[in-house]
Amino acid sequence: MLDFLERAWQTLLFASFWIAVVSFFWGWIDTYMLLSKSRQKLKRGFRIVAKPISPDVRLYLESLQENVYETKQIFFKDVTVGFILVNGRERLIQIRNARWRTSWPYVGYVDLSQPAPTLEFRASLPMHLALLPFIITVIAIPFVALMMWFNYRNETKTIEKFLEQKAKEMTEGVV
Question: What pTM was computed for the model?
């Protein structure tokens, strides 16, 4: 009986390892597509959570007629660190925190045609599937959960602060 359980456990770990390897490479491509500035479809990735947006942020997003790119000068070159893509009544927001690098980036998605638009935080599903072997080995669950919580907190706060800053800049510029 123990041999059977040991063999089943090894098979499960082996299968989850290869699922994770395939998911990682698929996720790498999917993350590139998630962060791509050239695709027309703005509703990308899978929804992690949705939060209501403030009236100021909604007004700012509705006022946008063209894409907005946030750049910073790194050494002698301007580098795009974030953007807001505009496609009809949809907005895709992505900004990177300089102090937080991750393989699980989030984007913000807002559909302004909804009666009560929300800021949806979206991510790449395959990159999350790459964590499967760590979740199957029960010992790593607290580490993965803590890591994902930190990632969620940093990614969502960065996007929210970026939108609030842009809305504040717009209201200060108008007044």
Answer: 0.81
